[in-house]
Amino acid sequence: MRNYLLILLFVGSLTLSGCGYNTLQSTDEQMKASWAEVLNQYKRRADLIPNLVNAVKGFAAQEKDVLLGVTNARSKVGSIQATPELINDAEAFAKFQNAQGELSSALSRLLVIAENYPELKSDINFRDLQAQLEGTENRITVARNRYIKAVQEYNLVVRSFPSNLTAMMFGFHTKPSFTVENEQEISVAPKVDFNRQETNQ
User: Fold this and answer.
1) pTM for the structure as a whole
2) Domain boundaries in the chain?
3) Residue range 37-42: average pLDDT?
4) Which residue, 36, 106, 110, 129, could crosslink 73 as a Cys pair with Cβ 3.0–4.6 Å?
């Protein structure tokens, strides 16, 4: 009896591996890891914003509309539950994506107005925050590109025969990714002009 069960388990494992079950598992895990990195970088950006807004406010308090726009966009992003499960809901994913796009636009406007304030541009604290923001935007772009690739690989397995049968059997579904319009937007990080000049000692 024991030998019979071992044979059944062996045959079952061969069947599952031959029908894409293991590939589904590995691509699903890769996609989840890629998404976690996207969320991590977005959080990093959100954490930088209050200090950036305060730095601008110190030199350009009259730019209330722009400062309020960034603050509101950040609040909108924060109101969306950015969980690992978000990628299972195409509508929620789209809302998250749109909110992040609005925040990117608001940040771009904030950095543009900084060009009008030489004292702000030369402030060490502001320049440091700009450098951190630029680095974070670059990491966001890399993380999103990795997520897009991971989703493509996962969705291909979910849709391809015979792994699509296994996907249906075990409840694997295609996942949403960033839209083409959003990909164009996210591929351009906010322009940051450091005007790095050596200060006189």
Assistant:
1) 0.78
2) 23-186
3) 95
4) 106
